[in-house]
Amino acid sequence: MKTNPLAPILTLFVAVTLSVCTTGCNTNKQETTTTNVPVMTAEKKQAIEQEISGLIKEFFQQVEKLDIDKCMTYFENTPDFQAVNPDGTFGDYNALKKLNADGFSQMTTLSVVPQKEAIRVLTDSLVLYTFSMEQNATLKTSQKIKYEHVAGTMLFTKINGAWKATFYHESAAPPVPVK
């Protein structure tokens, strides 16, 4: 499969554009102050990276527990939230929750095996997180499947002092049966 060399740039452009709309178009008044990364101290940037890293670790622990309600607490439930699902569909918060709840309901176990991740601090209130991983699942039918290549992007915005994902995109190769 040929990849578009502009994909990372387009992803960042989409993420930043969506963030501007999320923080600027939302009718809820949210407290957000922004400091550009070049002005930010290395210590502040590292502290933000550690915050996001801890949040992501907690999030994927909830994914492995197949707890959709706790998983969704990491996302901002507003009309501006957008998700691009592995099947290519566009969705809002509720659509993402339903899609994942439906998937979780078919599984008895799910393990997440991170392969690579990157945390990009864009400002002190905006962070882009990207990941690639493998996922292994056991279905309620006892069939075992593996998603060998899963990649995703989460745009985190600091809203009222808390980091929330305001945009989510996930892509995955079709699962393969495990014998």
Strand content: 35-45%
- Assembly form of the protein: single chain
Determine the fraction of residues in helical runs and give it as a percent range: 25-40%
Gyration radius over CA: 17 Å
Main β sheet profile: 7 strands, mixed
C-alpha geometry? globular
For the termini, the CA-CA separation is 26 Å
What is the count of DSSP helices, taking H or I runs of 4+ residues?
A: 4
Write down how many β-strands occur, each being a DSSP E stretch of 2 or more residues. 7
Unreliable stretches: 1-30
- Counting helices, strands and paired strands, the structural category is alpha+beta
Overall average residue pLDDT: 85
Order of helices and strands: HHHEEHEEEEE
Q: Could you characterize what this model shows?
A:
The chain is an alpha+beta fold and 179 residues long. Helices cover 34% and strands 37% of the residues. Strands 1, 2, 3, 4, 5, 6 and 7 form a 7-stranded mixed beta sheet that branches. Mean pLDDT is 85; it is low at 1-30.
Question: SSE layout and pairings?
Answer:
Elements: H1 7-25, H2 42-64, H3 68-72, E1 82-84, E2 90-91, H4 93-105, E3 107-123, E4 126-139, E5 144-159, E6 162-172, E7 176-178
Parallel strand pairs: 1-6
Antiparallel strand pairs: 1-2, 3-4, 4-5, 5-6, 5-7
